[in-house]
Amino acid sequence: MHQDSMQAERRPKRSSTPKVTAPQREVCPKCGSPNARIIGRSESFPILYFRCDDCRRTSVGPAV
Ligand SMILES: [Zn+2]
Fold first, then answer.
1. CB 48 within 8 A of CB 29
2. In the chain, which ranges are continuous DSSP H helix?
3. Distance CA 64, CA 58 (A)
4. CB 3.0-4.6 Å disulfide test: which of 4, 22, 50, 54 passes with 33?
5. Which of 48, 8, 50 minimizes the C-alpha distance to 31?
6. Segment 52-64 mean pLDDT
7. CA 9 to ligand 1 centroid distance, Å
8. In total, how many domains does the chain have?
9. What is the CA(10)–ligand 1 centre distance, in A?
10. Residue 33's Cα: distance from chain center in Å?
């Protein structure tokens, strides 16, 4: 029984988290229901796209 030298490769922890789609709820501008979900966002403008679970409509709102 012979063990070679253990190669302890220490991997640096990656702190960069991938894009996590958090279930963030927004207020629907159309019907006022707080069940709108963010379905996308613009990269050139601070704009978010919502979709309401109540009225089933997509709307655009400013990203704060
Ligand atoms: Zn709505």
1. no
2. none
3. 18
4. 54
5. 50
6. 90
7. 52
8. 1
9. 50
10. 21
Reported pTM = 0.55
Q: Is residue 15 part of a domain?
A: no
- State the distance from the centre of ligand 1 to the C-alpha of 58, rounded, in angstroms: 8
Q: How far is the CA of 45 from the centre of ligand 1 (A)?
A: 23
In a domain, 32, yes or no: yes
Dig out the tokens for 23 from the structure: 């279930």
Ligand 1: centre distance to CA 11 (Å) = 47
Residue 44 lies in a domain: yes
How far is the C-alpha of 26 from the C-alpha of 3, rounded, in Å? 58
Q: Is residue 14 part of a domain?
A: no
| Percent of the chain's residues with pLDDT above 90 | 42
List the domain range (segments joined by +) for residue 54.
28-62
What is the rounded radius of gyration, in angstroms, for the C-alpha atoms of the chain?
22
